Amino acid sequence: MPNLIVKLYSVFFKYQQKHLLQTLSLSSLTDQKPTNSFGVSSRPHESIAASNPSFTDGVATKDIHVDPISSLSLRIFLPDTAITSPLPSTHDYGGYLPPPGKFHRKLPVMLQFHGGGFVSGSNESVGNDAFCRRIAKLCDVIVVAVGYRLAPETKYPGAFEDGFKVLKWLAKQANLAACGRLDSQSHIFDSFGASMVEPWLAAHGDPSRCVLLGVSSGANIADYLARRAVEAGKLLDPVKVVAQVLMFPFFIGSTPTHSEVKLANSYFYDKAMCKLAWKLFLPKEQFSLDHPAANPLTAGRQPPLKYMPPTLTIVAEHDFMRDRAISYSEELRKVNVDAPVLDYKDTVHEFATLDVLLHTPQARVCAEDVTIWVKKYISLKGHEFSY
Which domain of life is it from (predicted)? Predict the structure, then answer.
């Protein structure tokens, strides 16, 4: 069973989250205004960690707003292993384009999508910041945490479209960086009108080794993006999605699984809360627990599963959503996709990303296990490049 701290925090979390869901539900019923296209990407109650462009803890971070017509934002996590020349510990790293002919490290890029049932959470929250720092250091990757728009201000498919917009932005950034290497003085603007190339990604990012990692509702977004990447093919060049990690995916369906019956009142997110979150996320006329965004095994989803990238699934023992995630993984394995499941005993939904509060040994083990698996697909030869 989970320890006492986990149980107590679960009670507090469920009280707070149910209040939030009920408040948002009430406001969505009384608010006659159209969907807010600009949207919000965090809630006032979230504890936010400030970005820090210094490598004092081994990872530098910066926030960028990549879309002037929406609240979509990114937090970039750059491990100091990308820097070949040591910087003073007090120095803020701005990024650079290395001199021609000089070898430097190019790191894989991981797009990370936070949880929160589509209605809460933030890429800048204390818990998500700590988790992304841990993953950036262990996996030796540049983590790009996506601050997608939340429901009900922005309904489906807003959060999914935000994810794909970032995937395309990453491809544009790679192409802009290539142009910049040809003419370092050129002033090129990206499609959002933001000022030129992002220096951290230009200097150190290798988008040909892109991993998608989603937590809870973020896992649904990651899985959607994996499908879109397969369909887009070379249109996303040079971005290549080589693997995805689905952590406690926010899957559900109209036909209950064994865990959805047995663990309906589980810790943190229970089934009733999950249904209410889906009602807030999906447009009223589209609401169904078998909506393709909710149920990965809904008939007719494209592309065929055999084209999906390698997919690692993380589940928790006391999470009512676990069985459907396991079933999805089983379907992937049936068509020869590398799709293992890691099941952690005495754990709850989102235990790995709540470690800043819960301090569970399973969270540290989980991050290490994710690292071992991910490195199979990102540890390619020739990871150093020269202009």
Answer: Eukaryota
